[in-house]
Design a protein that fits this description.
With 283 residues, the chain is α+β, with helices and mostly antiparallel strands. It is built from four helices and 13 strands. A seven-stranded antiparallel β-sheet has the order 5-4-1-2-3-7-6, covered by helices on one side. A six-stranded antiparallel β-barrel has the order 8-9-10-13-12-11.
Length: 283
């Protein structure tokens, strides 16, 4: 039976209302999405601006200290005094190692973060954690002699969190140990820049080996040597003065649960990067 005219009007009117409702609802959802996107971008930009502003102020402060002659002399004297105190307070295993090792350790500074690295080749190749360089526009290195040098990124491996950098000049490199020989309970030191305190040393022991890292690989040393933000990329050193690992991460806010990638894997990853980028093994 054909629809009567008023039935057609009702159906047509209902369909029109439904279409209008869908259009209005679509416009509302789109407007809500746009506002959320704008708010997210504004918040993200604010956070990045705050990070950049904080790092710029930190960089300016460091540069002013280095460029001021009197402050530089005072800083060097302070470092020597602290080294003497560290050697006096450290166990006899490390009394003759700290000063020699620190000459191969560097501060890695970017426009957004600061970490640690160490020299692996006399002609200026060094390693750090790749996450130290995330978001960077520039990378500079501060040596133990307080020289500031621009660095070039050679390559990185995000899975192992290793980055290879190059600076001009000749330096004292740190030797990598054979991590197959690491013993649980042996004494170690970690050298780094926790919370911006340059070339700080902490002492501990190897608490475990072949621990599972964030990449799921059983290739990490567990240590109770104190690790804090800024230690990332620094060396974990045994009583022979050799690097047994690169300090990588700690478990949340817990104490005495630091982890370092074992030295044999540092060598493997660095040589993979250098073969790809330089057609040669570095270590």
């Amino acid at each position: 039976m054909p629809l009567k005219r008023h039935h057609k009007w009702l159906i047509g009117g209902f369909s029109s209302l439904l279409v209008i409702y869908m259009i209005i609802n679509g416009i509302f959802l789109y407007t809500l999405f746009v506002r959320l996107e704008v708010n997210y971008n504004t918040l993200d930009k604010t956070i990045k601006d705050l990070q950049s502003d904080t790092q710029i102020k930190l960089n300016d402060l460091t540069s002013n200290l280095i460029e001021t002659k009197d402050s530089l002399i005072s800083l060097n004297a302070s470092i020597k005094s602290e080294l003497n105190d560290l050697k006096a307070s450290a166990s006899s295993d490390f009394s003759g190692i700290i000063e020699k090792s620190i000459s191969g350790v560097v501060t890695v500074r970017t426009n957004v973060a600061q970490g640690t690295g160490f020299i692996i080749a006399d002609d200026g190749y060094l390693v750090t954690n790749a996450h130290v360089l995330v978001g960077r526009n520039t990378v500079s290195i501060i040596t133990s002699e307080q020289n500031i040098i621009n660095a070039n990124l050679i390559g990185y491996d995000s899975n192992y969190d290793i980055a290879l950098l190059k600076i001009d000049g000749n330096y004292n490199k740190l030797e990598l140990a054979n991590s197959d020989n690491i013993q649980v309970g042996e004494k170690v030191i970690a050298i780094g820049n926790p919370l911006g305190l340059q070339f700080s040393v902490s002492e501990g022991i190897v608490s475990g080996v072949h621990r599972t890292g964030v990449n799921g690989k059983d290739e990490y040393i567990q240590t109770d040597a104190a690790l804090n933000p800024g230690n990332s990329g620094g060396p974990l050193i045994n009583k022979q003065g050799e690097v047994i690992g690169i300090n990588n991460f700690k478990i949340g806010s817990s104490e005495s649960l630091g982890f370092a990638l074992e030295s044999n894997y540092i060598k493997q990853v660095v040589n993979e990067i250098s073969q790809k980028e330089l057609n040669q093994n570095l270590i």
